[in-house]
């Protein structure tokens, strides 16, 4: 059974025999190898596949662009500079070469003829470090798009997902429903029972939203006590059905109130909803979905709360 690759290495050397040996040892380390015979080819591959490349093993002396020039270009390019580079030098005692490589940003170096086990160990370490750093970056980027209290996507992620869903709706002529929800009398919960109870209300509401939608849909905390649902391939009636399902679910999971309060016990959360849809009737217009849903939400609150209103699309025609 073939083991999955642990990473991808670009091997750059004008000598075919050296490339063969490097690739042989790195393949033994379960690394996938790409090859380039000169600096120009190496930079082309890097620019085309930089997201897949975890390490560059780079010969110092090559015709045309030498290794130092390639390294200088890599470290000056924002898309490439985080890829570690191990330099190969034919000058075993040229300390100045090692110093220059380090100053230009090389992660490590080896002298030719190189030791296979040492090359393998250095490459595995460099790829592991690169992979761990990339995972940390991805995690940080994900956390920057997640609301820490409710664990739903935040406003930034909403706008990113809305762009994707808008493109999907237009490409496949599939309706897109956006629901803007506001927890009724949330300020009163905070004032009567404190912010800890208010936070519990937000968590219950968020969990209920997440449990009430399909995997292709998405829920977001828009800010404060406002939340947004994006419902793919759903029209007005679909949106109303989802919100009815959420109301029924909230009745099963009431908010537990602090026991030391006069009106302690439980309280069922309610919400007002505004629904806007991009569909064939408005040529799948998604530019004003949030604004249209917000106007509908305002009407729902003006009409007494705990109800839903559909956006009036007459102004769009």
Written account of the structure:
- This protein is of the alpha/beta class and 317 residues long.
- It has two domains: 136 residues, 3-Layer(aba) Sandwich (Rossmann fold); 162 residues, Reverse transcriptase/Diguanylate cyclase domain (Alpha-Beta Plaits).
- The protein contains ten helices and twelve strands.
- The protein has a five-stranded parallel sheet with strand order 2-1-3-4-5, sandwiched between helices. Strands 7-8-6-11-12 form a five-stranded mixed sheet, sandwiched between helices. A two-stranded antiparallel ribbon has the order 9-10.
- Strand 3, helix 3 and strand 4 form a beta-alpha-beta unit.
- Helix 1 crosses helix 5 and helix 8 crosses helix 9.
- The radius of gyration is 29 Å and the shape is elongated.
- It starts with 7 loop residues before the first strand and ends in a 7-residue tail after the last strand.
- The mean pLDDT is 90.
């Amino acid at each position: 059974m073939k083991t999955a690759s642990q990473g991808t290495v670009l091997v750059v050397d004008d000598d075919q025999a050296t490339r063969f040996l490097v690739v042989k040892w790195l393949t033994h380390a379960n690394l996938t190898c790409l090859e380039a015979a000169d600096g120009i080819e190496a930079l082309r591959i890097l620019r085309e596949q930089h997201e897949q490349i975890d390490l560059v093993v780079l010969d110092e002396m090559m015709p045309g662009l030498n290794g130092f020039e390639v390294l200088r270009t890599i470290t000056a390019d924002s898309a490439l500079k985080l890829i570690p580079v191990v330099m190969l030098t034919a000058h075993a005692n040229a300390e100045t070469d090692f110093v220059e490589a380090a100053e230009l940003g090389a992660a490590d170096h080896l002298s030719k003829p190189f030791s296979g086990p040492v090359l393998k160990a250095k490459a595995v370490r460099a790829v592991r470090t690169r992979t761990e750093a990339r995972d940390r970056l991805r995690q940080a980027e994900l956390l920057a798009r997640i609301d820490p209290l409710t664990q739903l996507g935040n406003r930034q992620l909403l706008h990113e997902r809305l762009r994707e869903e808008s493109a999907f709706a237009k490409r496949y002529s599939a309706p897109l429903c956006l629901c803007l929800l506001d927890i009724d009398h949330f300020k009163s919960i905070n004032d009567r029972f404190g912010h800890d109870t208010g936070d519990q209300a937000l968590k219950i509401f968020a969990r209920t939203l997440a449990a009430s939608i399909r995997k292709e849909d998405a829920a977001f905390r828009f800010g404060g006590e406002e939340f947004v649902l994006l419902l793919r391939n759903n029209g007005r009636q679909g949106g109303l059905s989802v919100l009815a399902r959420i109301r029924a679910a909230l009745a099963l999971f009431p908010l537990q109130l602090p026991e030391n309060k006069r009106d302690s016990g439980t309280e069922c959360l309610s919400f007002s909803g505004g629904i806007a849809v991009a569909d064939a009737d408005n040529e799948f217009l998604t530019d004003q979905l949030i604004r249209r849903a917000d106007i509908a939400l305002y009407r729902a609150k003006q009409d007494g709360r705990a109800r839903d209103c559909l956006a009036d699309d007459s102004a769009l025609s």
